[in-house]
Specification:
single chain, alpha/beta, Uracil-DNA Glycosylase, subunit E, six-stranded mixed beta sheet
Length: about 240
């Protein structure tokens, strides 16, 4: 384990244990340690591209949406946050209670961990764009229903078209399976470069921050995924 990886794990609150030689390695331990390249400095702020007016009208359309029954129980919609011309688009599954209250994706403990994950690879909430598949909170934070995800996906696709990112990071099983239209487990989807539909945009899957809070041993694997996505965005010159 190199020093950079140790610093990452320490920042995410994971105690580092050295594996004994007699212990067997996990299935994906044979994957090579990803290289972490230098990140070019990005402009400060949340500047929008040429589609500023469309961002405004799209947000208004989402706020007034009644395409599925979820609108009846929401406090407000959770549209998205970040740079409108970001190199990286991060997609989660749906808002939780705090997101529904504040109108912003990935807040609370999971959001704090996501912020730490981004900082560990030289990015921040302000330099990426973050959205969910669903724009309204499902009751009791249950999994999204297919018809709900289908109703919201056109909004996400338009956000994707406006941002035009270099890559997409799918957080968690539900986001990954819906975006890829796959029933494969997250363990089989992560650790590789996939593609979102026929857009040609590379997509990488990793664990949801809420899962990492419950299963901190998985943070070591998330490091590989984060390095993979960053090297896609900023390849070595």
């Amino acid at each position: 384990m190199n020093a950079l990886r140790q610093r990452y794990l320490a920042r995410l609150g994971l105690q580092v244990w050295q594996r004994r030689g007699s212990e067997s390695a996990p299935d994906d331990s044979a994957r090579p340690e990803p290289r972490l390249e230098a990140v070019p400095r990005m402009p400060a702020g949340g500047a929008a591209g040429d589609g500023t007016d469309r961002w405004t009208t799209l947000a208004a359309e989402v706020a007034a949406c009644t395409r599925c029954a979820l609108h009846r129980g929401r406090t407000q919609t959770v549209f998205g946050v970040g740079r409108h011309d970001a190199d990286l688009l991060i997609v989660g599954e749906a808002p939780g209670a705090e997101e529904d209250r504040r109108g912003e994706p990935f807040v609370g403990r999971a959001g704090q961990l996501l912020d730490a994950m981004l900082r560990a690879i030289g990015l921040s909430r302000e330099t990426v764009y973050i959205a969910n598949i669903l724009k309204c909170r499902p009751p009791g934070n249950r999994d999204p229903k297919p018809e709900e995800a289908a109703s919201c996906t056109p909004y996400l696709d338009e956000q994707l078209g406006l941002v035009a990112p270099k890559a997409i990071l799918a957080l968690g099983r539900i986001s990954a399976q819906w975006l890829l239209q796959s029933e494969m487990t997250i363990g089989r989807l992560r650790g590789q470069v996939l593609q979102y539909r026929d857009t040609g945009i590379p997509l990488v899957v990793t664990y949801h921050p809420a899962y990492l809070l419950r299963s901190p041993q998985a943070k070591a694997k998330s490091w590989q995924d984060l390095c993979l996505i960053r090297n896609l965005i900023y390849p070595a010159q």
